[in-house]
Amino acid sequence: MNDKLNKEVKEKDIKLTAVEPDDEKVVVEEAVEASVEKNEERKSSTENKKSIKDYLSKDLFADIKRISFTDEKPSEDDNQETLSEEYKGTFNDISENQIISAKVIGISDSDVMVDIGFKSEGLINRSEFDNKDLPEIGSNIDIFLEKFEDTDGNITLSKYKADFIKRWDELKHFCESREPVNGKIVKRVKGGLVVDLGVIQAFLPGSQADVQPIKNFDDLVGKEFDFQIVKVDEMRKNLVVSRKAILEESLNEKRQELMKQIEIGAELEGVVKNITDFGAFVDLGGIDGLIHITDFSWGRINHPSEIVEIGQEITVQVIDFNKETSRISLGLKQLVDNPWETIPEKYKVGDVVKGKIVSIMNYGIFIELEKGIEGLIHISEVSWTKNVQNLQETFKTGETIDSKVLFVDSNEQKISLGIKQLSDDPWEKIADLVKVGDKNSGTVNKVTKFGAFVSLTDELEGFVRTTDFHWTKNTSHPKEFINEGDKIDYIVLEILEKERKVLLSIKDLIENPWKDIDAKFNSGDKIKGSFEKMNDSGIIIKLDDEIEGLIPMNKISKDQKKNVFSSLNEGDDLDLLVVEVKSDDKNIILMLDESNVDD
To answer: Among residues 278, 311, 335, which one ends one of the domains?
Structure first.
């Protein structure tokens, strides 16, 4: 019977285990030898030609099917039917492209051998396993069955694909349930980072790496965080994750908790997160607060960076908050006593004080009287008489100067100061200093397009209007006559005490040539003049006594422009006709006299 059974085992490629009666040991040994021979035949067609004896151990017998023999021997037909059913049963639950359980039966330097209950064992490359966590012989592992038989007759198995499929299903569940998943950032790529979620890697966009902009993404590589899966691409098997979503949710919880506890006047610890021109944002541990530039110091500052820097840990006071919008206003200066509370006792109107210039603006000078206390000298309070336009020409930052207290308002935290009040007002005795008709000389202090400022005394200035430089020449700018620093003669035209102005004239030092102009020029007169220049109004003609006349553009023909005026040079003489004399407007209208022009 043993010989017949052994023959049937070989035919069906069925492995037998040890049976319980002693005389059946021979059957087991023969069955094992048959299995060895069959495996050696299969292995000979592949690169792995190792004998299965090298893989087998005494654990092998635990997997072999047990057959119990009764005293009554089965018939040959019964044996054939039983073996056929058992052989078919080995394939009932196994098919290609599915995850199955396999038992590790051997490990070599390059492969892990597993038994899947099929006609032959399978090999899985050790590269699919973590060398630090290789499976133990006899343990069961999940693997992916790709093919029962490839072109070389081998079973194609993959541990990695099984792990991938299982992990993919797990991660899809995390995405659907919005549960966080732990991962490790492994490298930086274009547009973001790669996160290892265990078997599967996901993409982390740069915008989703943190709630705040990140200067250097390389600082995150190698670190573990919790992530939320925000996108699953089933076709490409790609995942997109977000760390920002996790942080925002955490920050929102902290924000809500903090808003419940916060109250005006509370002192909190925070870290300076960002600095702008108008203030600084402070992270209070889940929520940001703003220190406005006016709440850094009781004194004036130009920029918040003068007081704090990014990353600095500071103590702040809550001065206002809105639970609905989660906006919190913070202050630094509120942590110290307000020095303005004692200002009215320290500084009284009329006091002469000394201070350091801390800032020079177009409209005035800021003077630091003490730490946190500043006063303003408005530009109008610098001089009684001089027209000061550029304070930086006279004063320098850091300079210490004296001034007089003009006004104090502790509620508005304002102190007005003046420099000119340190000396007497010259306008109180202007009648003793200047009189209309006085002729004198002075230095030109400043020239503008409207005229020039001329020094009368050390403290008093007069003004020459543009129209008071010359009787006959119409200038577009006073610099055509004078420059700053020139010493000039003048005559006092008018004193305007209410406006605090002294008007001067240069042209009135000589007689007005226009006074008798009607006696010199009459309409229709033929006169001579010299070409001076051409402008948009017409052609300027120089006449006697430095009087100028004008040939308007509408009095010039196309032929005259082309044949006469186009070739003229300054000083060339012309024959002219007087068209009209306007003595009040100081204007003489002329035209070209062509009666003497040769044909």
So the answer is: 335
Q: Of 235, 230, 240, 228, which is closest to residue 200 (Cα–Cα)?
A: 240
Determine the Cα–Cα distance for residues 264 and 471; give it in Å rounded to an integer: 73
Taking CA atoms, 135 is separated from 56, 57, 130, 327, in Å, by 16, 16, 9, 57
For residues 590 and 579, the answer to whether their CB atoms sit within 8 Å is yes
**By the 8 A CB rule, do 171 and 197 touch?**
yes
DSSP letter assigned to residue 65 = B
Q: Which of 402, 422, 442 delimits the end of a domain?
A: 422
Q: How many residues does the chain have?
A: 599
Domain count, the chain: 7
pLDDT digits (tens, 9 = 90+) for 503-554: 999 888 888 777 777 767 888 888 888 888 888 788 888 887 677 888 888 8
DSSP 135: P
Average pLDDT over residues 53-76: 43
Asked if 135 and 202 sit in the same domain, the reply is no
In the numeric block, which tokens belong to residue 144?
Answer: 């992916």
Q: Where are the beta strands (DSSP E) in 410-486?
A: 414-418, 439-448, 451-455, 461-465
Q: Is residue 256 part of a domain?
A: no
The β-bridge relationship of strands 461-465 and 501-505 is parallel
Domain contains 302:
yes
What does the pLDDT look like over 214-249, one tens digit per residue?
Answer: 878 888 999 999 999 999 888 888 899 999 888 877
Q: Which tokens belong to 21?
A: 């009666």
In a domain, 311, yes or no: yes
Residue tagged 């048959």 (tokens):
34
Position 359 in a domain: yes
The tens digit of pLDDT for each residue in 433-473 reads: 888 989 999 999 888 888 999 988 877 889 999 888 887 77
User: Whole-model pTM?
Assistant: 0.42
Six token digits for residue 46: 């592949």
Is residue 433 within a helix (H) or strand (E), and if so which, with residue range?
helix 430-433
Backbone torsions φ then ψ of 139, nearest 5 degrees = -85, 155
**How many other C-beta atoms are found inside a 10 Å radius of the C-beta of residue 165?**
17
CA distances to 290, 352, 376 from 422, rounded to whole Å, are 43, 8, 15
Give the dihedral of Cα atoms 243, 246, 251, 252; nearest 10 deg: 140
Q: Please tell me the predicted confidence (pLDDT) of residue 210.
A: 86
Residues 259, 266: Cα–Cα separation, whole Å: 12
Query: Residue range 422-429: average pLDDT?
Result: 84
Note whether 436 and 493 are same-domain residues: yes
pLDDT band, very low/low/confident/very high, at 424 (cuts 50, 70, 90):
confident
- Residues forming a β-bridge with 185: 195
d(CA 139, CA 158): 17
Residue 19 has pLDDT above 50, yes or no: no
Edge to edge, the sheet with strand 111-115 lists 122-125, 111-115, 98-107, 140-147, 156-158
Q: Phi-psi category of 506—alpha, beta or left, where left has phi over 0 and alpha has psi -120 to 50?
A: alpha
